[in-house]
């Protein structure tokens, strides 16, 4: 379960000092902001935004002129990332988790009284790999944080550039 112990960048990545600073700032900003939220709708919406930032980094990094792409949906970013990157064996769950989170977010954002919300929550939770910390009490917040950390790890592992202008570096 999540707590105040902020994730840190591992030394296993060959990043410049500037890259480490940018990623560390992005991690701290997101972590400190996200920990303060208790409302489930806000958790899902903000978690979705954090993951969207990572998808944009992954996709934009492969483009020559990413600024030419406008009005692209979350689902389209996810499809592009899925087409551009092969996930390592221990992360094959990631695209499915992000897709399930997107469905949950869309239901919460676009339906005043969503009838199948528990079904969508359980679907999202079921996409997260089981481990010793993954208990029945594993909250939606825990699942989103685990998904976001996996995205951040994958972004760093693929040496995606983060410019100071990118939202995740603010």
From TrEMBL:
Highest taxon listed in the record's lineage: Bacteria
Gene source species: Nitrincola iocasae
UniProt-recorded name of the protein: Uncharacterized protein
């Amino acid at each position: 379960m999540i707590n105040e112990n902020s994730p840190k960048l591992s030394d296993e990545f060959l990043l410049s000092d500037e890259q480490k600073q940018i990623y560390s700032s992005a991690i701290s900003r997101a972590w400190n902001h996200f920990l303060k939220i208790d409302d489930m709708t806000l958790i899902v919406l903000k978690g979705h935004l954090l993951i969207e930032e990572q998808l944009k980094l992954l996709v934009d990094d492969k483009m020559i002129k990413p600024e030419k792409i406008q009005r692209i949906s979350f689902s389209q970013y996810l499809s592009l990332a899925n087409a551009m990157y092969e996930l390592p064996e221990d992360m094959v769950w990631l695209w499915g988790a992000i897709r399930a989170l997107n469905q949950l977010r869309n239901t919460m954002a676009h339906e005043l009284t969503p009838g199948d919300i528990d079904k969508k929550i359980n679907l999202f939770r079921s996409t997260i790999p089981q481990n010793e910390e993954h208990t029945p009490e594993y909250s939606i917040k825990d699942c989103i944080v685990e998904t976001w950390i996996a995205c951040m790890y994958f972004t760093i592992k693929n040496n995606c550039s983060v410019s100071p202008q990118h939202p995740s570096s603010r």
